[in-house]
Design brief:
Elements lengths: L3 H50 L29 E6 L4 E5 L15 E7 L2 E9 L5 E8 H37 L1 H12 L18 H48 L3 H34 L4 E4 H18 L3 E6 L3 E4 L1 H18 L5 E9 L2 E8 L30 H11 L3 E5 L8 E6 L6
Parallel strand pairs: 7-9
Antiparallel strand pairs: 1-2, 1-5, 3-4, 4-5, 6-8, 9-10, 10-12, 11-12
Helix pairs in contact: 1-2, 4-5, 6-7, 7-8
């Protein structure tokens, strides 16, 4: 029943059968009532006509049966459908009767009017009428088996006609359903013939009006999927380009180190090799973070953001101290909806960006506070900062501010933007501490404690 064609055919045929069944039952009742009425009318008409045709004084005579039909019109009296009798009410003697009529009265009690009497072990429909003076009575009857046979024959012919009509109509309905779903079948063939990477919108003009919203919604999904695939292609191209440079540098620096004979110069080359390796490892880690976020999405858990911020900020204290930097932490209990891993990536990249680009002896302030409409996470520094004209671009993938001397991948803040958007959080970028540096403020919707 998952087939639309099967559903339509089953529904239409079932409706037709139920309608015809109800119609046939009504027709049967009407035919039975009408046919029974015609029988009763015929019995009464024959009885009255017979009584009016009898001569006066016949009740006193005994008429002998002396006539017969010509040979070519001989009649099988056993097949006669109606039987009549004429009785003398005073003497109870039969005056006249039809061929094959029973010897006893059809109506033994001589009661006038209609009735159903057992005659010869089977029910008969009878009618009796007496003359005005009460001297003679005419009784007319027919076996009810004949009525049932006539009804059966008439209903059988009607049922055969309806059955033939139903078969013809079912064929027509089947053709109409096939014709109606033909555009869907054609569309299915077109989809099967497409290449896996063909995400062009499906044609909806030929489809029925009822199916157009579904196809248009599917086209919207294809458009979003195509946009996502284009973004991923650009990401792969950019990532390959970004990885090519450090790999080439690693190759050159390794070759230089192998050729170096002076221990001091060798140590310097190994230091350069270590820095390039760390940068490549950082880039690979961020690429893996981005791929993992795209694949897994986010759940719905209550996360203690202040705990995440505190743990990650402590991890950066040693590295910041080597640069002469100071990280200050100001947190209070804050719950947000999300997952620990993505939120940890967000906080880590914000602090790493501040440490990396804040410069030597910078002050980096990390705060997490509750507000009336949510939770505010702030990471600000008093370093050289970013020109205001580039505030919106720093969250683009692989974008780096012109003129900066620090080597970075340009992925960290794009991950921050992606995670914030997935958590329904808003980002505001402005100046950092004491009117200097860069400050990033992310406002999350708050989660109520369970």
């Amino acid at each position: 029943m998952r087939s639309l064609r099967t559903r339509l055919l089953t529904g239409i045929v079932a409706t037709m059968l139920l309608t015809w069944a109800g119609t046939f039952l009504w027709y049967r009742a009407e035919v039975t009532r009408e046919w029974s009425g015609e029988w009763d009318a015929a019995l009464r008409e024959v009885a009255n006509l017979t009584l009016l045709s009898l001569p006066v004084g016949l009740e006193n005579n005994v008429a002998e049966r002396g006539f017969s039909l010509p040979g070519e019109q001989r009649l099988d009296t056993s097949q006669l459908q109606m039987t009549f009798q004429v009785w003398n009410l005073a003497t109870g003697r039969s005056v006249l009767h039809s061929p094959s009529a029973p010897g006893r009265p059809i109506v033994p009690d001589m009661r006038e009017g209609y009735g159903t009497i057992m005659v010869g072990g089977e029910p008969w429909r009878v009618y009796a009428v007496s003359d005005a003076s009460g001297r003679i009575q005419v009784q007319v009857g027919k076996p009810q088996s004949l009525l049932r046979k006539e009804l059966h024959d008439r209903l059988t012919r009607g049922l055969m006609f309806v059955g033939i009509l139903a078969c013809m109509l079912a064929c027509v309905v089947g053709c109409l359903v096939q014709w109606s779903v033909l555009p869907v079948t054609r569309l299915s063939r077109r989809i099967l013939q497409r290449r896996p990477t063909d995400l062009q919108p499906l044609p909806a003009r030929e489809l029925p009006v009822e199916l157009r919203p579904l196809v248009e919604s599917f086209n919207g999904l294809l458009g979003r999927l195509d946009e996502t695939m284009q973004n991923e292609r650009r990401f792969l191209v950019d990532a390959a380009h970004e990885l090519r440079t450090p790999l080439a540098v690693l190759t050159v620096q390794t070759e230089n180190a192998l050729r170096c004979q002076d221990p001091v110069q060798l140590r310097a080359e190994l230091g350069k090799l270590l820095a390039t390796t760390q940068r490549s490892a950082r880039l690979s880690e961020q690429l893996l973070d981005m791929a993992r976020l795209d694949a897994n999405g986010f759940g719905e858990d209550d996360v203690e953001l202040h705990t995440v911020v505190s743990v990650i900020a402590r991890d950066f204290e040693t590295g910041a101290a080597e640069r002469g930097q100071r990280i200050s932490l100001d947190t209070e209990d804050c719950l947000v909806r999300g997952r620990v891993d993505p939120l940890g990536i967000l906080v880590r990249n914000l602090i790493d960006n501040a440490v990396r680009y804040g410069g030597r002896d910078a002050h980096i302030a990390v705060a997490c506070r509750r507000e009336a409409d949510g939770v505010l996470l702030t990471v600000a520094d008093d370093g050289p900062g970013v020109p205001e004209s580039e505030y919106r671009r720093i969250f683009d993938r692989f974008y780096r501010v012109m003129g900066t001397t620090e080597r970075g991948s340009g992925i960290g803040l794009s991950l921050v933007a992606q995670i914030a958007e997935s958590h329904a959080a808003s980002i505001h970028v402005g100046t950092g501490l004491q009117g200097r540096g860069l400050g990033v403020r992310i406002r999350f919707p708050s989660a109520q404690p369970a």
